[in-house]
Amino acid sequence: QKEVEQNSGPLSVPEGAIASLNCTYSDRVSQSFFWYRQYSGKSPELIMSIYSNGDKEDGRFTAQLNKASQYVSLLIRDSQPSDSATYLCAVNGPGRRALTFGSGTRLQVQP
Amino acid sequence: GAGVSQSPSNKVTEKGKDVELRCDPISGHTALYWYRQSLGQGLEFLIYFQGNSAPDKSGLPSDRFSAERTGGSVSTLTIQRTQQEDSAVYLCASSLVENTEAFFGQGTRLTVV
């Protein structure tokens, strides 16, 4: 079992719809959770961080964390073609010094 | 600087040559990380620095890979006797302290021919 699992996609949504990206992790003591966006040929860009159970909203983005289910998700409201990218989930916690990344979900927003 | 800076942006080298990749983290960030990403693949952790020490070198794929960090700032990743399988994008990230938000540089694309 991978430490951080994501569906590779592609996830295709129409412009204006809500895109829902999911991530599960195996280490129950993980404490820090991050979503990065990576455009083709570019480096990852941090878009959200979440540390406690519940929802965290920032503009069109909402991160959701459920530690009991070891599940973190990212919702993108009013999706735009410019949101088309690969979204990487990353996890960190005690005893682990660096972020562990999932393999990413490719999102395609259709105009 | 305002962000993490890596140099060179691109490097083409012949098989068997040594290469040095440089990372200049965000000012004041104590934690520095090296990852690599092969074409179409995920991020592979290489090494982590806290200050000048490297408490986690577990991701270095072989003894041809080494890294150092001086003055709690700039880091250099050295690959000796490069092989074609070393071709990848090498990414550096820094964070204020460990377990907090990490910010990436633009990466160095290494091609071994």
Shape of chain A: globular
Strand content of chain B: over 45%
Termini separation of chain A comes to 36 Å
Q: Number of helical runs of chain A?
A: 0
Let me know the number of strands of chain B.
Answer: 11
The radius of gyration over CA of chain B amounts to 13 Å
SS content category of chain B: mainly beta
Largest interface, Cβ cutoff 8 Å: A-B, 22 and 25 residues
Mean pLDDT of chain A: 94
Show unreliable segments of chain B.
none
The pLDDT mean of chain B sits at: 94
User: Helicity range of the residues of chain A?
Assistant: under 10%
* Biggest sheet details of chain A: 6 strands, mixed
The backbone outline of chain B, from C-alpha atoms, is globular
Oligomer: heterodimer
How many helices of chain B? The count is 0
Order of helices and strands of chain B: EEEEEEEEEEE
N-C termini distance of chain B:
33 Å
- β-strand number of chain A: 11
What does this structure look like?
The complex is a heterodimer of chains A (111) and B (113). Chain A has 111 residues and is mainly beta. Chain A has strands spanning 4-5, 11-14, 19-25, 32-38, 45-50, 54-58, 61-66, 71-76, 85-93, 96-101, 105-110. In chain A, strands 2, 4, 5, 9, 10 and 11 form a six-stranded mixed β-sheet that branches. A five-stranded antiparallel β-sheet of chain A has the order 1-3-8-7-6, with no helix packed on it. Chain A is globular, with a radius of gyration of 13 Å. Chain B has no helices and eleven strands. In chain B, strands 2, 4, 5, 6, 9, 10 and 11 form a seven-stranded mixed β-sheet that branches. A four-stranded antiparallel β-sheet of chain B has the order 1-3-8-7, with no helix packed on it. In chain B, a hairpin with a 7-residue loop joins strand 9 (88-95) and strand 10 (103-104). Chain B starts with a strand and ends with a strand.
